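Example record used in the benchmark description.
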Amino acid sequence: MSKKLDTAPYKGVRDFYPEDMWVEKYLFNTMRSVVEKYGYTEYSASPLEPSELYKEKSGEEIVNEQTYSFIDRGGREVTLRPEMTPTVARMVAGRKRELPFPLRWYSIPNLFRYESPQRGRLREHYQLNVDLFGVEGIEGEIEMISIANDIMKTFGAKDGEFSILVNSRKLMQALFESFGLSEENSHIISKLLDKKDKVDEKIFTESVEKILGENTTEFIALLNNHEKLLEKVGPEHPATISFVSFIESMDKLGIKNLNFTPTLMRGFDYYTDIVFEIFDTHPDNRRSLFGGGRYDDLLSLFSNDSLPAIGFGMGDVTVRDFLESHGLLPEYKTETQAMLVTIGSVDKIEVLNITKRIRESGIAVCLNTGAKKPADAIKGALKLHIPYIIFIGEDEVSTKTYTVKDLRTENTQSLSEEELISLIKT
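Model output (structure tokens):
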């Protein structure tokens, strides 16, 4: 006997049964409802990209350790996209002269990374990507974080349940320069900062000492003293002025849960200034949920022109974990409002016509002609979470009065076609 295939999905990816797909639709519909209010338009692209697109700007760790890459039959190196930002940059660069700016685009693509599966991190996920092109000033940062904040609030989250961590790469670069660091050492320090919370404090300090030597103590102290850090860079430095103005603007807009976090650098090499992350404060799920930042130079990969750009990506896995941790995930509700069940020998064409009229009234109804007895049909409807069941036999067809049972209350009524439609619609 041949070996039977395993029914489990590939490690680190998911099957979406109807209940799971319902949650995905809820997440996506909520995301869409917010971003479209800000004037964003949806786009999409293939999950396959040339590998060189990621080698240039995503970062060595992403490309070397986390991508699904292969050589296709034509000898080209191809990668399943691990993120969407390089793709949208490619698309915008390809039609830059035709597109109206500022440009507001969003998508909800499927992304793939070869990682060790764990809570909040799988090998594939869906991610809302929101990108704004052509806005150079802090208005772009303000809009991005306002959208992210509004999405969280639309999901039902309160200010105390999440924090918005923010930092400025330009500000940190100015700090590195104040310590006399070269471009190479500045890059090394930025990578160390990005992993600070994931390594032992002693290991972090020792790593910084290799770069900063006797200045290590002062540098680490500045990470915990924001006023001193800004003084070190200089209050008149353009990076300080811009960042302070950004923080003050967010406060005036009523977004109070912003936290300046100098260790926040984010892993992608293409970020050029403000970066941010939404952080779950729940004790059982304290972690980064999603984030983004400004990437003004990414389009220069495709031409000599540059274009100011900022965006963020919001993954479905971490957001679902957040909603579950805070009790904000709504209860599953099927889109099917009623099941129509035939009893005994009944004219099939008549049943189909009744079903058709019910659907034309705007009600989603499925037809069950194979139930051996009413109890079997009820059991099936309950498993499918269908709220109403309608029984039709010869008597119902002749009298045009139908037995309707509300499976939530177990209340049973005999109603005309108009009455049952009115009941289900209420």
